[in-house]
Design brief:
Strand order of the largest sheet: 1-3-2
Number of domains: 2
Helix content: 55-70%
Largest sheet: 3 strands, mixed
Structural class: mainly alpha
Shape: elongated
Oligomer: single chain
């Protein structure tokens, strides 16, 4: 995604003596988290002209273009201050849902809810041992059929043996429980005819809008910045390329 914001801007209240710069942002979840505050900091010195990005960087680029246009139009001079508060908003609690707002924005499709739960259960593990334990327990809990099948051989050895054989059977059962669950994780993820964990909209029965649903609402319902950042009068301006850039940010982030 790439757009020239200043060439498409309406009558502006911006200081013509301010420096201008181009801005390109790469993808990556971690990068996407730090971009809002970085852009807000740079906006104190520069007016952004050509803004581009890929993946998470495309979303940030759409937000930066929207905020810059809000400032240049004079309709939302505090747009970058709102952008600066975005990380705290995303990291804060989600109203009516469990966990942070950022976590609730990612909503897995039905076939992948168990897989997604397994991944999120492993987040923020304090040590490697704890991480491994979380994965093992999560896999066994969420994929019980594979775990039971994997443990079946060991159970059979326990039933048909005595003495040391029972201990070996117990060991086989424990190993089979874990291996069977992990194999089930891989097999079920490859067998689903669905692309990606999370689709483009909110999942059925979700109490919280998904990432793409929220972005579409923010970038297309009022195409110049967050929610309704410009007054109704400012919508009469023609800002073709800049408004299209917001849609590009959403569509690029889907790929």
């Amino acid at each position: 995604m790439n757009t020239d914001v200043t060439s498409a801007r309406p009558a502006t209240t911006a200081n013509p003596s301010r420096l201008e710069c181009d801005l390109v942002m790469k993808g990556g979840i971690t990068s996407g988290v730090i971009y809002p505050r970085l852009v807000a900091k740079l906006s104190k010195t520069y007016n952004f002209r050509s803004i581009g990005g890929t993946s998470a960087g495309a979303i940030a680029a759409g937000a930066a273009a929207a905020a810059q246009l809000g400032v240049l139009s004079g309709a939302r001079p505090d747009a970058f201050e709102e952008l600066d508060r975005l990380p705290n908003l995303l990291g804060g609690p989600a109203a009516g849902a469990k966990g942070s707002m950022l976590l609730n924005l990612f909503q897995p499709q039905q076939p992948f809810r168990r897989h997604f739960g397994l991944l999120t259960a492993a987040l923020n593990a304090p040590s490697t041992a704890n991480l491994i334990a979380r994965i093992i327990m999560g896999a066994v809990w969420r994929f019980p059929v594979g775990a039971i099948l994997g443990a079946a051989i060991g159970v059979a050895v326990i039933v048909t043996s005595s003495g040391v054989g029972k201990w070996l059977g117990a060991l086989l059962a424990a190993i089979g429980l874990v291996v069977g669950a992990l194999i089930s994780v891989v097999v079920t993820s490859r067998s689903q005819e669905v692309r990606g964990f999370c689709n483009y909209g909110s999942t059925h029965g979700a109490q919280f809008p998904s990432l793409v649903s929220r972005l579409c609402r923010a970038f297309t319902d009022c195409p110049f910045c967050f929610g309704c950042c410009l007054s109704s009068a400012s919508r009469n301006h023609t800002v073709s390329e800049a408004s299209r850039s917001n849609c590009c940010a959403v569509s690029t982030s889907r790929n």
